[in-house]
Specification:
- By secondary structure, the chain is α+β, with helices and mostly antiparallel strands.
- It contains 4 helices and 5 strands, in the order βαβαβαββα.
- The protein has a single domain, classed as BirA Bifunctional Protein, domain 2 (2-Layer Sandwich).
- Strands 1-3-5-4-2 form a 5-stranded antiparallel sheet, with helices on both faces.
Amino acid sequence: MCIVKMVSDPYKNFSSIFNLVNYALTDKRTKQPVRYFGGFNVDISRADEQMVLVKECYNKTSRRMMRHFIVSFEDDISPYDAYILGYRIAAYYAGRYQIVFGVHEDTDNPHIHFVFNTVSFVDGHKYSEDICDLTRLKAYVNKVYKTYFNE
């Protein structure tokens, strides 16, 4: 099973976009890029810039800039398995939002940091989160996990 935690920080300015994307893609121990990372709808090396461009294009440059969630695992899985799961989990938001993820290996079990833009690149609508969204995300993540390990 998986543990999904939505981080509640507001991330209310452009520097927070850079900082958060950098955090997700950097190994805290070595200060180097994580071994396993990915994303949708962005060039990973310029993800923060491209997310800002979408916000500016739709004139949505106020309030919460990003959403950040973490997926960890109750079972011991390999960093590579976490990487494959990262792509499958990121697909949940990829139809409308720019999203990046990085697998962190600085704990006993790998965990994944996901960061996505709150402005849709499709139509400029802001992500409107409610308690049901987190419940749906958790169910999706656990379904992806079970499907992956039963293949």
